[in-house]
Amino acid sequence: MAGIKDVAQEAGVSVSTVSYVLSGKRSISAKTTDKVMAAVERLGYTPDASARKMRGMRNHIFALSAPIRGDINQAKYNAYFLQTAWQAKNRGYDVLLLTGEDAVADIRRVTQSNLVDGVVLLDIEEHDERTAQAGSYSKPCVAIGYPAEHEGCACVDIDFATAGRMAVDCLYSKGHRSAMFLRDNETDCDRGSGYVLLFRKALLERAEELGMTIHESFKHRDDRFDAVEFVRELCSLDERPTAIVNQANANVLKLVLQQLQASGLRVPDDISVLSCGTYFEGELMPQPITEMPVMPQELCSKAVDLLVDAIDERRDIKGLVELSAPVMHSRGSVTKVGDV
Amino acid sequence: MAGIKDVAQEAGVSVSTVSYVLSGKRSISAKTTDKVMAAVERLGYTPDASARKMRGMRNHIFALSAPIRGDINQAKYNAYFLQTAWQAKNRGYDVLLLTGEDAVADIRRVTQSNLVDGVVLLDIEEHDERTAQAGSYSKPCVAIGYPAEHEGCACVDIDFATAGRMAVDCLYSKGHRSAMFLRDNETDCDRGSGYVLLFRKALLERAEELGMTIHESFKHRDDRFDAVEFVRELCSLDERPTAIVNQANANVLKLVLQQLQASGLRVPDDISVLSCGTYFEGELMPQPITEMPVMPQELCSKAVDLLVDAIDERRDIKGLVELSAPVMHSRGSVTKVGDV
DNA sequence: TTGTAAGCGTTATCAT
DNA sequence: ATGATAACGCTTACAA
């Protein structure tokens, strides 16, 4: 591998001249510049990343922590991986993927050894060890999610409390007085994903305020969702709910939509469907579903911007919380009901 | 940040002693070891990754190239990301994610600057610039896939040619003489994903040999698969095919299965379904489907092993090709037909 | 068993 | 406008 010394020799100049030509940090004569660039070209010289960083320069790498937890289907994080990597590249950073089970240990290892300049946290739980320890990391840290303990890092998330209220308000204003709340299997809740809890709390509270009824239902058999049972319960309720608020994934919702059709219930004529905190972009739904989606692109973009700011501008982002307003994408699956 | 000098001072020994205690490369008295370890603990010392690598040591990072191509649904690569990261960690390596559109440029950048010790290539096309250029990378490289040009790197893949023949043999031996070939929308084919081409070629050739009829069908409207039209065509054929060979993704197959049911065709009584090169583990299929799956775990494991071997043992893996035998997972969706 | 010092490839501070 | 050189934090050959 050709080093800066080889280039200097090839060009007949000193190493510092080569360095300055490449960095542009001082004025160099056109002739010298040409000689050096030619030599660089000829030798295929690329500066060594480690040596460069030894001089106190940035590494231009940050860690992306997405611990693999056996029970969870991780497919939904793919969009976050790609968006983070993409945004990082836009800002001149590479992404080091950390998927080990002991996430805190991994983060400590890569931050303390100066392998990375910062950390992005994915798949945040309500009580997340990674954010709880963030204050002790030697590099800035941004969480995509909104955990209870977040003094040591910045947080970026959708405002799920508002989303919960918006969901109720949307339905209530269209005359709905009773709705089913459809969630994924309980794993996520047990783990305590913050957004699920927040959304549910706000949903129930706002419904209470307005005097709207929310039926919670968990129909899972052998870890699989039972759509037939769900629809059966829906139909058997005294005052049949006129809407479904969905927070489950695409597969579960598809099963429900199918079963509704099989039961002769048309969407939205017989029942409205509103999906929240989901991401059906590109998913093949039987019909378009009105949605307040999560926004991987927006969240990742914000997170990366914040982190790069903290790194490059030495900005202190500890404890910062940025919640994005939920956005309602009307796709016709929610309609008015009654005499409203 | 505490450095090795601080530790040496704190422990009252020389820097080299600290280094040797940590590396275990020479025998140190128990007393000294204790003193040093205590100091390391007290100061929370972690060696600097760059400085370490400057001394010719490995970086213990490799690049994972998965270029974002606008038209493709990247969700299917998630399993490969995670498996690669997981296997890498088992072998003591971290993974740097490269998703830039100009993949070759990214790879050159990280290999030439010694940021990574090796490269793993994902989502390989039949004619892939990344493998075509692999010979000129300054680090070893493994492709998960089997492209035309692969002199400069190692390749790890399922043996899709054999899979194609196995699919035909399986159906033929059960009395099937005519089948529909169901593929994803044509994007993958146009791009020329190697495995799709290989599988199709072998499938058609073997069918020809045995005198079996394969109907190819592309029913896509507005970039969406039209299951209704597909089943209509299936039923309208003179000698109605008794089997479907599927290579499309879970969503497309689900639509077809649904439509078959709607048309009164039962699987496998009225029509057999065999899926190849897919990965339905954990997907919610209406019913279990006999499958020759792709095997992310096995492929990634092999790829990582190969790469780590090349890095740590300086083994030359250029041009190496390792094809895994396809495995048939019988799940009851293929049955005998006629008087066999 | 332990210490001293050279050197890895850069960048930045001097000097010229 | 350019060159010589110290320094970054570590590993290891050589000395004691």
Automatic annotation (TrEMBL), chains A, B:
Which positions fall inside the HTH cro/C1-type domain? 5-32
All copies of domain HTH lacI-type, residue ranges = 2-56
Entries under InterPro entries matching the protein: Cro/C1-type_HTH, HTH_LacI, LacI/GalR-like_sensor, Lambda_DNA-bd_dom_sf, Peripla_BP_I
Q: Which domain of life is it from?
A: Bacteria
Name the Gene3D superfamilies for this protein: 3.40.50.2300, lambda repressor-like DNA-binding domains (1.10.260.40)
* PROSITE patterns hit by this protein: HTH_CROC1, HTH_LACI_1, HTH_LACI_2
Keywords carried by this UniProt record: DNA-binding, Transcription, Transcription regulation
Record protein name field: Catabolite control protein A
Per the UniProt entry, what species is this protein from, by scientific name? Bifidobacterium longum subsp. infantis
| Gene name, Swiss-Prot/TrEMBL | ccpA_1
